[in-house]
Amino acid sequence: MAATSQDAAPQPTPILIEKRFPLELSQTIMTIRDLYDASKQARWDPNADIPWSDLDVSGLSAEVRRAAALTWSRRSWVEYTGLPETPALLIRFCLEIRREADPKYFLAVRNTEEAWHVEVCHSIAEAFGGYVDAPSNDSYAALFNQAYSKQALGADTFLDGYVAAHCALEDGLELELWRGYLDNATDPVVKRALQLCVEDKERHAAFGWFYVEKRAAQWSESDRATVAGALARHLGEVEFKGYHCAWMAPDNAAAEIVAAEKITTAAGLGALTPEAEATIVTNYLTLARIKFAALGVDMPDVPVPAA
Fold first, then answer.
1. Domain spans of the chain?
2. Which of 15, 16, 33, 183 has the largest CB neighbor count within 10 A?
């Protein structure tokens, strides 16, 4: 009588060979290790290091207070969107075999700084009259539901391309815009808050550029094309839809925010006019194309929307 499946000898369960652990923790990218050390030394407390009690809004009109609250709420939406990205990136760096240790250290502290930025934006919005949870326009609101963490962990995502688009290009653009907000701010409390955030964002942008510069020598032509595609997608599908600059939103979807930011700018509360932002974006993208060209990447010349 033939043996049944129940009579067959049990087969051993194969044990997969884990090659990722122990993690490689030796120092290999000293520029990024220096950023990690600088972040530890520059630690600050949003509650203790910003003189919130000095923020006097009593002399501002209701229109200005509403505008400032909406302006800083929009910044919170951007910060909230990116907050889950860093732990996902950290996990991805740990999952991939032979990824360098220095980015892992840096990302561990970057997330704390991003949380402080969320708190700052939210606190300023509250001080001027109340945080706004989401855009009133549903199509514009969808822009702030980017699944960054899912993208970073996606098996089909080329990690170097993701870092190029989000940690170099995007973080670099955000830095230049925030520098502009800081330069325009006249209120001392808002100026202090912006200054602290900008110092962090300088390290965040530097991390992205340092990493792609380190990795570029290993890229194949296919890798470079993948990086270029990631850059083009981020610009066309995120930035030029109004993610950082509300006036770029198609069909005037963010008209209310654009109007609020003009009032916030005039009041010296840390914002810029669309024309000023357009200049910053154009100049930064020109510089970014030069830097990526030096790495062998042909960054697409996607037209900047008109302000």
1. 61-294
2. 33
In the predicted model, residues of the chain with pLDDT beneath 50 are 1
Predicted local confidence at residue 301, as pLDDT: 87
pTM of the model: 0.91
What was the pLDDT predicted at 279?
A: 97
What gap in Å lies between CA 68 and CA 59, rounded to an integer?
14
| Spatial separation of the C-alpha atoms in residues 163 and 177, rounded to whole Å | 20
- Alpha carbon distance 275, 280 (integer Å): 9
Q: Which structure tokens are listed for 284?
A: 């930064």
Query: Which of the listed CATH numbers 3.90.1570, 3.40.50, 1.20.1260, 1.20.5 matches domain 61-294?
Result: 1.20.1260
DSSP string, 109-146: HHHHHHHHHHHHHHHHHHHTT----S-SSHHHHGGG--
Give how far Cα 102 sits from Cα of 109, 180, 207, 259, Å: 11, 30, 10, 43
